[in-house]
Each structure stands twice: as structure tokens, then as C-alpha cells.
Amino acid sequence: MRAIMVDVDGVLIRGRPDDGCHWSTSLEADLGISADDLHREFFAVHWDEIVIGRAMLTDRLRPVLQKVAPHLAAEQLIDYWFSRDTRLDENLLAALTQLRSSGVQIHLATNQEHLRAKYLLTELTLADHIDSIQYSAQIGAKKPEPDFFRAVAARTGFSPSDILLIDDTAKNVQGAKAMGWSAVLWTNERPLHEILSDMG
After folding, report:
1. Sheet of strand 132-135, all strands in order from the earlier edge strand to the far edge
2. Are 139 and 151 in contact (CB under 8 A)?
3. CA atoms within 13 Å, Cβ hemisphere of 115
């Protein structure tokens, strides 16, 4: 194993910084828009194209908010979302940092759009802890699509057999294995060193 590809949401980041709840838990009380409305009008309709880079987040969000929450600017909602989806798993990050110091490359392999990918690197300073971020909007395909795994291997220069994916979604783990990667389903129940030890 020469490189570990780490999923972000549900693995390295797990919800709101204060309690780990989903970022939209208090959305209606805080910003006056219901999470159900936002999901129905925005995420269910537009997210698939945004997350693979075929549309920009703000371009699709603005008209939706004009319809369901005209008092709210897209930038306000984005700032609220990003800042409340930031609970880092410090134990996992420390374990990854230790592995990186021993020569294993650490990359993020994640379904993200462009703005949050940048936020993760700069505002959360994850750029200081990883070798690169490989994300769906940049690649034009998302996990568990074969093109995602194929592109990540090509972009990082590793053979599939050199790569381990850590992900909390079973379909993504299966998709990675189908492309020749090693992959483990992250449940946050065991430390990384135990999982790696079991793998030999």
C-alpha cells in the first residue's frame, strides 16, 4: 500500500462541530428555510450535475432560493452550510498524518463541488495534511462510477493495487474493489491502525 484515499463526509468530517448533527439540523430556525424544501427543490433536482462539475453551485442555488426563501442570499446559505459541516475526526487525521510521515501518501477522494473542495483545503487547512484532493466536480465523475476511480489512479500516478480507499458507503467500497483497489468500509468503531493491521 503506497497511497490511502480518504473519503470526506462521514469519514474525516462528521457533521456540525459542536454536536456532530447534520449541518441542516437547525436550518429553519437559523435561516428561515426548511431542510425539506431545500432538499426537494435544490439537492434532489440539481446536485447530481453540480457534484460532477456540469453546473456551478451558486448558479443553481440562487433561483431556487428566490423561489423558496427570497430573503436568503446564496452566499449566506453556502457560508452557513460549509461552516457547520466541519467536525473533524481528529484521531483519524492524526493517524493519517503519522502514516504520511512514514512515506504513505494521503489523498482525499470525495464527491464534492468546487467551492467546498476549496473550503476544505483552505479554511479547514486540510491542505497541510494531505498530498492532494481528488474530487468529483474536478474529475467529471463521482463515486462509485468506474471513471472516478480510474481518473484518481491516473492523476495520482498509482497502480490500483497500490491504493487503499477508506469510505463509509458500501457502494463506493465495492466500486473501488471492482477497479482493483483495496477498500475498507469505515464505521468509526475501530481505529485505523487496527484496520490496517488486520489487512496485513
Report:
1. 132-135, 105-110, 3-6, 163-167, 182-185
2. yes
3. 15
> How far is residue 25's CA from residue 7's CA, in Å, rounded to a whole number?
22
Nearest to residue 56, comparing CAs of 101, 128, 114? 114
Task: Write out pLDDT tens, residues 74-97.
Answer: 999 999 999 999 999 999 999 999
Q: Please tell me the distance from the alpha carbon of residue 83 to that of residue 123, in angstroms, as a whole number.
A: 9
Strand partners, 134: 109
Distance separating alpha carbons of residues 55 and 79, to the nearest angstrom: 19
Reported as a pLDDT band with limits 50, 70 and 90, residue 17 is very high
The predicted model scores a pTM of: 0.95
| Nine-digit cell string for 184 | 475498507
C-alpha to C-alpha distance for 21 and 86, rounded to whole angstroms: 11
Torsion of CA 18, 21, 26, 28, to 10 degrees: 150
Nearest residue to 181 via CA among 156, 193, 103, 197: 156
